[in-house]
Amino acid sequence: MAELAYTFLKLLPRNTLSRAVGAACRMPAPRPVVRAVIRTFARKYGVDVAEAERALDEYPTFTEFFTRRLKPGARPIAPGELVPVSPVDGTVGEVGDIVEGRLLQAKGKHYSLAELFGGPLAEEDATAFAGGTFVTIYLAPHNYHRIHAPLGGAITGYLNVPGTLWPVNAIGVRNVERLFCVNERLTTFLRTPRGSCAVVAVGAMNVGRIRAIYDDVVTNARRTRAVQRKTYEKPIPVEKGAELAIFEMGSTVVVVFAPGVKIGAKVVPARPIKLGERLE
User: Fold this and answer.
1) What is the pLDDT of residue 222?
2) Phi, psi of 122 (to 5 degrees)
3) Which residues share a beta bridge with 204?
4) Which uninterrupted H or E stretch holds 97?
């Protein structure tokens, strides 16, 4: 059944469909219609609406609900300048060491960090993480969809690489080679007290748009696209737990740390995790 679904997905114009879905979700509609759609979605996927910053009836579009902020204090950030935390709500996919520049996607499947960041033009970026660690976190539809800084410090730049938009659920992870390296992605590079850190937001089908908070960059916003890279002459200060970007549907984040950060024994595949929980 999974292979049949994979074969069907290969035939679809996934990027075009994702842009269409995104446009529909952002489109204003009569308030009763928007309310009905939001309530149906929240009920179907088990969204914890009590955590939302606003009441369901106050969101004018589905996208504004999906990218909702949470009530103040809903996600306490583990204290300590040197303590890395989860940047998102989700479920741990894989976790481990970066060995010979490679990360684990799923059993029997690996990909290179340089390719994840952006291919040959990111070889130098990847060297800063040789011997480091990584955590992959999958965001389901019911999760909170804002991405935050796992450590404080400064944003030194970003790299946005266009790509296709495979699903990042079990079907995609098990069937698509180098899945996270072929999908659209936005990597935010940080300088922290624990060394270099990178937060890679991986787009997926129906998640054509990833919006950065710290700069004017939106992924999959047009048909003709090119790699976008920016290095800040004056890095942007950022506090641990501050917002970095927003997914406009569920997807995946890969967090990469320089050597010295050891992921804790409690952070294991299939474990639910929330923004602000310590990773070490």
Assistant:
1) 62
2) -115, 10
3) 207
4) strand 90-97
Residue in 152, 153, 179, 157 with CA at minimum distance from that of residue 168? 179
Ranges of the chain whose pLDDT falls below 50: 1-25
Q: Which of 18, 86, 112, 251 is catalytic?
A: 251
pLDDT at 141: 87
Nearest to 26 by CA among 69, 52, 60: 60
d(CA 262, CA 133): 7
48 has catalytic annotation: no
Question: Do residues 201 and 210 touch, judged by C-beta distance below 8 A?
Answer: yes
Q: Report d(CA 88, CA 75) in Å as an integer.
A: 10
Q: Which long-range contacts (CB under 8 A, 24 or more apart) does 106-114 make?
A: 106/173, 106/174, 109/173, 109/174, 109/177, 109/178, 111/178, 111/179, 111/180, 111/181, 112/181, 113/256
Nearest to 69 by CA among 148, 174, 157, 184: 148
Concerning whether 97 is annotated as a catalytic residue, the answer is no
* pLDDT value, residue 98: 95
**By the 8 A CB rule, do 165 and 9 touch?**
no
Catalytic residue among 18, 86, 145, 148: 148
pLDDT, residue 169, reads 56
Residue of 86, 89, 112, 145 with catalytic role: 89
Backbone angles phi, psi at 74, to 5 degrees: -70, -25
CB 276 within 8 A of CB 80: no
216 is catalytic: no
CB atoms within 10 A of CB 212: 21
